[in-house]
Amino acid sequence: MNVFIQKRNLITGSNDWIVENENYDYHQEVARSSFADMLHDTERNKLYEAALKIGIQKIHEKGEKAIVLDIGTGTGLLSMMAVRNGADKVIACEAFKPMSECALKVIELNGFKDRIQVIPKRSTQLTVGETGDLKERCNILVTEVFDTELIGEGALSTFKHAHEVLLEKNCIVIPNSATIYAQVVECPYAFKWNRMKNYYDGNECLLKVPESIKTCSGCAAVHDIQLNQLPLTSVKTLVSPIPVFQFDWSGRTPLIFEQSTIHNLRAECDGEAQAVFIWWDLKMDTENKIILSCAPFWAHPLSKNQSDVKIPWRDHWMQAVYYLPKELRFAKGDELNLITCHDEYSLWFNVRNVLRLENTDYVNPVCTCGFHLFPRTRIGQINDEQRNDVLVKTIKSYVNRKNVFIMGNGFYLALLASKFNADKIYIFENNSFSKRIMNDFIQYNDMKNVIIFEDLKIY
């Protein structure tokens, strides 16, 4: 009998159900995830606990018991923090069975078994009432359901359902709110992860990129990255970081699941708008005094206050790059309109130089050429000029007037061989997307000596 597991769809940003064998080892998911990095994120843990302490005190000051709901408890860490800071009762839910079992063991080992109830369900499946999972609504919510994109793990629907079904009206929510920031840049270094360039050998163009790939709007899938590791010399800022979206987790204002905004700005320098860098921060408490920021060092609040401060390193939350559907060149002072959009799970961006916008300017980019379905690192490898020069030099020395058989996914190098007097180029490629892309290159570059095989038969 087969089982279903959830995996992140990198194109839509949502979680899809995938069929696996009944003997599938769920602990692989834990091993491959960022659980350890998250649990050892000292700043995250300290700020969550500081906000919990304040929230529990506020409830007690009103003469009420602090009933805490911990959504997505994982190992039970936040639940135990709540008990340690005076929570009267904690209900923790965790839908991923290996983690809910882990939480039970960890909680018992630390002596909190009688104060924390672990329910192996999604929060949206919890019921309230005498016969329900919760006997009463909770007055404190603590949860960490965020990813690099902030909303990619379903935070919007999680908070909305919690307020409607599981929480009291004037509850305290940790974190209280979130802000997403965006920075418009020209960054040739990052640009190589999105657009393929023509390949030249000296002044001779050996491989031209088809127009279908050049003009494709690309894919809106988030490219999570450590912006701190980008060479600053490769980044030219056309628009300095600005807040583009605000999310009120407290329930005081409704959460919007689909939103588009226009920011009428001016280019700060000459350059080509190629990408948008984003990150977010969390206001952990109701007074917005405790702030957890994922900003890179040049925009981080800690570095603004102290020049020599060490910015926390974390891999479970990073920054992200979103590539624009079409690059536009601006002069300093030109009007620059940043379009920012989100749905329930994902973000996307566009830039225009006039306010006469079309409906298509707000549309989530979808790749039509197939090339942008390659991983970002693969596209970057294809554009690695130094690597390509070494390989082309080797290819040149071997293929003269010979038949060449290519296995593997280095299609662009295989196609280059046709330019070096090879009699025939035989390429084995059984991936339909790669084959389609190769055929586009073959036709666009008028290559007559390339043959693609979908399967190999041995006689």
From TrEMBL:
Residues 180-340 form the Protein arginine N-methyltransferase domain. Transmembrane segments: none annotated. The keyword S-adenosyl-L-methionine applies. PROSITE patterns: SAM_MT_PRMT. GO terms for molecular function: methyltransferase activity. The keyword Thylakoid does not apply. InterPro entries: Arg_MeTrfase, PRMT_dom, SAM-dependent_MTases_sf. Keywords: Methyltransferase, Repeat, S-adenosyl-L-methionine, Transferase. GO terms for biological process: methylation. It holds the Pfam family PRMT_C. This is Protein arginine N-methyltransferase 7. The lineage of its organism: Eukaryota, Metazoa, Ecdysozoa, Arthropoda, Hexapoda.
